[in-house]
Specification:
single chain, about 70% helix, transmembrane helix, transmembrane, membrane
C-alpha cells in the first residue's frame, strides 16, 4: 500500500510537470499523444489495475484516437480523444462495468473527486516513521469551514456592492502576495504558469488515482440483460408506484392492469401504423419519385428532415415503453408484437425518406457538417431500430439496449474520426461548383487544413447564383474580391500562427499546409 501510494503521488506530480511542459501556449496535437502514452504507462504499472482484455481494448482505442488527432487534427478527432480517454480510465479502475455510459460516468466522478482521492492516497503515504494521517485530520477542520465561508462570501458579495469591493480588495492582495512569493522563489515562473501546472496536477491526479467508492460499479452489477416476469407484491408499494397510481386514478391497482395496458398499446400501434402508412405513402409519391422543388423548398426539406428524425426517436421510445416489463409475457402479446414490428419496418421506410430529403439538400446546396450529421443520425436510427427489434423479439431489457448501442456508437465515433471531413467537404463542393449554388463563405469557415485546396481553386470562390422554379434566388451573393480577400487573410493568419508554436504542436495537416505555402517553422 505504501509503495502504491508513493507511486501514484509521484506519477501525479510528474504528470503535472509534463502537462505544463506539453500544453503551455501550444496547440493540441503531438503533445496529446505524448501525454496519453504517459497515462497509459502509469495505469499499466499500477498494481491495482487488472490487465484484462477490456483494459487492452480500451487502451488501444484511446491510442488510436490520439493518433487520429495527430493525423487529422479535427474537432471530431478531439472529441473521440477525450471520450476514449475517459472510457479507458472508467473501465481500468472499474472493470466490472459493462456499458460505456456507466464507464464515462465513473471517470467523470473520479475526475471531480480529485481532492478526496488525493487526500485518501496522501493519508496512506509513509516516509520512514512519519505518516500524513494526523495532518489530514487537521485539514478536515479547515477545509469544510473554508468552503462554507467561500460560498457565503460570494452570496454576500452579490447582495452588497460595498462588501464586494472589500472582498475583491482582499482577494487581490492575497493574489499579489502569492504571485510575489512565487516570483521571489522561482524567478522564471509566472503565476499563470503555476496555475497551469496546478491544473495539470489536478487532471493527472484524476486520471491515475482511482476513486475509492465503487457504488456506481456495484449498482450496475444488479442490472440484467434478459427480461424476467415480475410478480408484483400488492402489499408493497414504492413511492414511484404510489405516484403513478394517484395520476392514473388507481388503474394500476386493478387486477386487469396488464390487460388494460395491452389494449392501450394495441389501439396505439394500430393508429400509429395507419398514420405512418399515410405519411410514407405521401413521401413515396412526392419525394421518392420525380421530386421537383417548389416554393421555399430549402425550408421544407430542412424542417421536414428535423421532424422525421424526432419522430423516429419518439417511435423507439414508445416501443421501449410498452415492452418494458410483463407485457412481453402476456399470452395475447403476439398480435401486439407483430404490430410493433410492422411499425419498426415503416420507420425504416421513413428513414429512407430522410436519406432522400438530405440527398436533395446536398444536390442543391452541397455538403455541410449539418447535412453529413443528418446522414450519420439516420444511420444511428437504423442501428437503434435494429437493436429495439432484438429487444422486443428476444425479450431484452433497456440495459441491454444501452450496452449494445453504447459500444456501437463509440465504435462509429472512432470510425468517423478517421475521415478528414473538412477536406472532404471542400473537395466535393468545389468539384460540384457548376451544379450547386456554391457557398464560398461557408468553405472559408472550414479549418486551416483546407487552405491549400481553396488556394488551388481561387477562381471558383465566387457566388454561383441558384434559383428555384419561380426564379427566386436561394443564396446571398458576395463579390469575388471579397472572397479573395478573406482567403488571403486566412492564409496570413495561418502563417503567423504556425510560426509561434513548437514541435509539440506538430500535426500532419498543419505540416502539409505549411509545406504547400513554404512556411518555415522557427522551432
Amino acid at each position: 500500500m505504501k509503495n502504491k501510494s508513493n507511486l501514484l503521488l509521484l506519477s501525479a506530480l510528474l504528470g503535472g510537470l509534463l502537462f505544463s511542459f506539453l500544453f503551455w501556449k501550444e496547440r493540441l496535437a503531438l503533445n496529446l499523444l505524448i501525454y496519453s502514452v504517459y497515462i497509459l504507462i502509469i495505469t499499466y504499472v499500477n498494481p491495482d489495475i487488472i490487465k484484462s482484455q477490456k483494459f487492452k481494448i480500451y487502451g488501444a482505442t484511446h491510442l488510436l484516437a490520439a493518433f487520429l488527432v495527430l493525423i487529422n487534427n479535427s474537432d471530431l478527432s478531439l472529441v473521440s480523444y477525450y471520450i476514449s480517454l475517459l472510457l479507458f480510465i472508467g473501465y481500468s479502475h472499474n472493470q466490472k462495468i459493462r456499458t460505456v455510459f456507466t464507464s464515462f460516468g465513473a471517470a467523470i466522478l473520479q475526475m471531480v473527486t480529485v481532492p478526496l482521492n488525493a487526500i485518501k492516497t496522501l493519508a496512506e503515504v509513509k516516509i520512514g516513521n512519519f505518516n500524513f494521517k494526523p495532518v489530514f485530520k487537521l485539514v478536515k477542520y479547515v477545509f469544510i469551514p473554508l468552503v462554507i465561508v467561500t460560498i457565503f462570501t460570494c452570496l454576500y458579495s452579490a447582495a452588497n456592492s460595498v462588501f464586494a469591493h472589500y472582498a475583491e480588495t482582499i482577494l487581490t492582495s492575497i493574489s499579489e502576495l502569492i504571485e510575489n512569493t512565487i516570483g521571489l522563489l522561482f524567478k522564471d515562473l509566472s503565476a499563470l504558469r503555476f496555475i497551469h501546472f496546478c491544473l495539470g496536477l489536478l487532471v493527472t491526479s484524476g486520471l491515475v488515482i482511482a476513486f475509492f467508492d465503487k457504488s456506481l460499479q456495484n449498482a450496475e452489477s444488479n442490472c440484467k440483460e434478459q427480461l424476467l416476469r415480475v410478480r408484483k407484491n400488492a402489499k408493497y408499494k414504492s413511492i414511484w408506484r404510489e405516484l403513478l397510481s394517484t395520476f392514473s386514478f388507481s388503474l394500476l391497482d386493478k387486477k386487469l392492469a396488464l390487460k388494460t395496458e395491452y389494449i392501450t398499446a394495441l389501439i396505439s400501434f394500430i393508429a400509429l401504423n395507419i398514420l405512418l402508412l399515410l405519411l410514407n405513402s405521401i413521401d413515396i409519391v412526392t419525394i421518392w419519385f420525380g421530386y421537383k422543388p417548389s416554393g421555399n423548398f430549402s425550408a421544407d426539406l430542412h424542417d421536414g428532415t428535423n421532424a422525421l428524425i424526432f419522430s423516429i426517436a419518439m417511435a423507439m421510445g414508445i416501443i421501449i415503453y410498452f415492452f418494458r416489463g410483463n407485457l412481453n409475457f402476456y399470452s395475447k402479446s403476439k398480435t401486439l408484437r407483430f404490430l410493433a414490428f410492422v411499425w419498426m419496418l415503416q420507420n425504416l421506410i421513413l428513414i429512407v425518406s430522410v436519406f432522400i430529403r438530405d440527398g436533395y439538400y446536398i444536390e442543391f446546396y452541397g455538403l455541410t457538417y449539418k447535412r453529413i450529421g443528418v446522414i450519420i443520425f439516420a444511420i444511428l436510427c437504423i442501428i437503434g431500430l435494429t437493436t429495439v427489434y432484438l429487444k422486443v423479439s428476444k425479450q431484452k431489457t433497456l440495459f441491454y439496449l444501452l450496452k449494445v448501442n453504447g459500444n456501437i456508437w463509440f465504435a462509429l465515433l472512432l470510425a468517423f474520426s478517421v475521415v478528414n471531413w473538412d477536406v472532404f467537404i471542400a473537395k466535393y463542393n468545389l468539384s460540384q461548383q457548376t451544379k450547386i449554388s456554391l457557398d464560398a463563405g461557408y468553405l472559408l469557415t472550414l479549418s486551416d487544413k483546407t487552405l491549400p485546396i481553396l488556394e488551388k481553386n481561387r477562381e471558383k470562390l465566387h457566388f454561383t447564383e441558384g434559383t428555384d422554379i419561380n426564379d427566386r434566388t436561394y443564396a446571398k451573393p458576395e463579390t469575388a474580391e471579397f472572397y479573395q480577400h478573406q482567403l488571403d487573410m486566412r492564409i496570413s493568419f495561418f502563417k503567423e500562427r504556425y510560426k509561434k508554436v513548437s514541435w509539440l504542436s506538430w500535426n500532419l495537416q498543419d505540416w502539409k499546409t505549411a509545406e504547400y505555402f513554404n512556411i518555415p517553422n522557427k522551432n
